[in-house]
Amino acid sequence: MKSTGTRFISFALAALAFASSFATAVVDRVATCCRAAYRFACDFVASVPATFAEPVLQLFALPIELVQACAYAVGLAKRQRPCVTPGWRMCPST
């Protein structure tokens, strides 16, 4: 026959194991819900159209600057290389 002290210790350890198991399950459920809410929020923010995110800057440029910028962009698109003249040195040490 077991003594009363041994039964109490067994019961206390069993209660402690149950409480820790229950607490672990609760923390796991809360963490899972928080992770799901975070992913939902990230997906929602990523799906919002950018029409009202920030105003578009209105840039005013002179027509000459626009023509030069377009010519530069066309030159890049056509992959035009600069003309190298004999007076232009490739290596500054010579």
List keywords for this structure.
94 residues; mainly alpha; 2 helices; 64% helix; rod-shaped
Molecular shape: rod-shaped
pLDDT averaged residue by residue: 77
Structural class determined from secondary elements: mainly alpha
- Helix and strand run: HH
Number of strands: 0
* DSSP helix fraction: 55-70%
Report the β-strand fraction as a percent range: under 5%
Number of domains: 1
Give the termini distance in whole angstroms.
105 Å
* Low-pLDDT segments: none
Largest sheet entry: none
Tell me the radius of gyration: 36 Å
- What is the count of DSSP helices, taking H or I runs of 4+ residues? 2
Commentary on this structure:
The chain has 94 residues and is mainly α. It has one domain (4-78). It has 2 helices and no strands. The longest helix is centred in the first third of the chain and has 44 residues, at 4-47. The radius of gyration is 36 Å and the shape is rod-shaped. The model has no long low-confidence stretch (mean pLDDT 77).
Write the topology of this structure.
Blueprint: H1 4-47, H2 63-78
Task: Summarize this entry quickly.
The chain is mostly helical.
